[in-house]
Amino acid sequence: MSSLDALTREAAALAAGASGTSRSSGTPGRPAHDGHDGHDDHGGHHGRGGRGAAPHDADTAEVARVLQICNACRYCEGFCAVFPAMTRRLEFDRADAHYLANLCHNCGACLHACQYAPPHEFAVSVPQAMARVRGRTYADHAWPSAFGGLYRRNGLTVALALAAGLALFLILAVASTGSLWHAPMAGNFYAVFPHDTLVALFGSVFGFAALALSIGLARFWRGMPNDPDLPETDAGTQREAILEATSSALRLKYLDGGHGDGCNDADDAFSPWRRRFHHLTFYGFGLCFAATSVATLYHYALGLPAPYPVTSLPVLLGTVGGIGLLIGPAGLLWLNLRRHPLQGDPAQRPMDRGFIALLLLTSATGLALLAWRDTSAMALLLAVHLGVVMALFATLPYGKFAHGVYRCAALLKFAIEKRQPSRLQLGSD
Amino acid sequence: MVDVLVIGGGNAALCAALMAREAGASVTMLEAAPRAWRGGNSQHVRNLRCMHDAPQDVLVEAYPEEEYWQDLLKVTGGLTDERLARLVIRASSTCRDWMRSHGVHFQPPLSGALHVARTNAFFMGGGKALVNAYYRSAERLGVQVHYDAPVDAIELDGGRFVAARVARTDADGTVRHERFEARSCVLAAGGFESNIPWMREAWGRNADGEWPVDNFLIRGTRYNMGTVLKFMLDAGADSIGDPTQAHCVAIDARAPLYDGGICTRIDCVSLGVVVNRNAERFYDEGEDFWPKRYAIWGRLVALQPGQIGYSIIDAKAVGRFMPPVFPGTTAGTLPELARKLGLDEAVFVRTVERFNAACRVGTFDHTALDDCRTEGLTPPKTHWARPIDVPPFTAYPVRPGVTFTYLGLKTDERASVFFGGQCSPNLFVAGEMMAGNVLGKGYTAGVGMSIGTAFGRIAGTQAAGVALGAGASAFETSMKGAHDVLA
User: Fold this and answer.
1) Which of A238, A340, A408, B403 is found 20 to 30 A from A331 (Cα to Cα)?
2) Hey, where are the domains in chain B?
């Protein structure tokens, strides 16, 4: 959380400096209609002096249009954080659109409850408009910038091809030394790939992923909407906000529908399963990561090199995590295939599925390696597993994983913002 | 043959279908709209006005029966049936657990609606979420739902329901006729506000030779054609409510003809002035709090030439009212605004300047009936009067938006349909088709849902009781249901 803390301070500093993220004037929020009364739109607006906010693109303009309708309706206020954040605004510029899009968890509740959803001529789909902007957030904030386009091409095929390619490369590397099919080695991975090689290989891939995502996050945070008229939040308030954002993220608070029955998948029925599968995925991933970290500690701090017995901490963590990471992504994939087409951006489904597939393969190959580590197939299984894991890490900054990073930042922004006074005095008389 | 046939697909119809099914009857529902447009005006509603003697989950403080009754008496000007009204009020205090059991979620009101935190329970996600929940529950319980099934005729045997006839139009334009027999029937098919020719006939022409309805917008569903209502009236059913009247409010003139719903409201009238097509003011914009006046403004605008008005504010008002769905017309000067609106520049400027000069500004407070008023101006502005002098100036065009019609079928506490004072043995009515019994005129937030829920539940229970056979047990079932609703 220390990096979030730093970001909060950075945001406060930016707000004090009033950089180029001020409010825009005007919104192109006019819904299409049939001109029944023949009264024309005069195109006017009442902005508070736009000071160079970036102009809308088609996707952020659609968010602005949709939210202008939502802001006049507000029936969905109880579902999630997006709508309370919306009611603090009268207009939605590009920065607002990116912030609110990443605050949206794509639960779908507001689509199915919407009296203005298609076939209504206002054609409101908040989840879809938000998802399209999220796609842009990821691409726009990617580092290196030239890699932003990878989000559009990071589909299932690319993910699987990368995993297969890396696995094949590792298999060939092992085969070239003539030890691919070998006598059982009691699960001694380092006999196949020396420990230092693995550390260098994965350390650099993981380090690059972490760096790329951090830079993206910092860019995103700097672009957040900031109202220079609002007072700065004090350290205590910032701590509260960080705690709340962390809790919202770890509990997936905004996938509970606001009433606890869960979110929508194929239709207007609520289900707790997306949240549950996501928890299994996230915490499964976390446990697998913890297994690796504990093993690293064993290796360096305790001088205990792998392999570890089945009842050891790293193997137990990895096994439980691996099972979670097997069921979670499988469930998410199943739900993803059944999702209502107006929920989210169907164009991003390949990216979603690519990430899900890599997670699923990571756990499946990891558990297979554990099961057969004492057989002659160990080197082959290890090469495949390492290839998949490397593909997963290599694609982290350019795929669906990014949603977690930007979502957390948006949740933090929301937690800070809601503790600030609202400038609006919408008559509650 | 099915036990209970429910004609309609909104809140009252769903309440009737669910209650009848829970009582053990087989139930078929005929919804005129396609699935995507199901729910009638209920898809646009937001809350339920609830009596309560002490704080209750999302409701604060108390809203006792007597206060609710007095509110109803006030808005209807006495055009109400006290027995039925009190029945609705009492039912509103106990129905929410039943609603929750069918998947409806409540929440306290949030921004922009705090003035009804005491009296109204809000549906999380609004009326469409409620309608969706009821349909899911109905399907789970085995209610047969037919969409695209508009009833065009009802077969009666004296006052007894025999069957309903549906004329479905296929994609290729061929009309298929179907006949639905049932032991009893609940009519909950709404009013006639979507039927423009009927509305035109009801409102007639004004002294200038205009047909005012031509400039009206319908805030709700496009499927309330009043076909069933008209059929029943022609068949001799006893009616209630003024056939020429509708509830109408001032909404954004650019709203779509149908289904504009809540977002087309214009909430800045009390913060500025309103002029007509001749650029003249015509009523006290600051008479009372806006939620108490928006219905009056629908009628006021309907009486203006061309049935249009322009709500004019200056920069001081921005951020003080719910943001409108369409952007306003803005200008740096008053003449420029008049030009953009197509109003007579000189008259408009004179109207605003006269108003500005008449303002006696005290302490502006939009949350109270403050002391900012005009002096020596006709019509006056009695509260919140501040000169319109800080540019940019903004205008929103307003037209009458029809919420519902008052004409309906006369009924009693059993939701029965009457023919010449004779009670039908197996035909019941609920929702907008009978709301005029309780609400002869006027409206107050959430009361339509209270009426629809109470009478939908009674009608469903009664229809099931009749359908499940004469005999003591069915009678007891029926009375028990009625008792549950009344308790």
Assistant:
1) A408
2) 2-191+226-242+406-486, 248-401
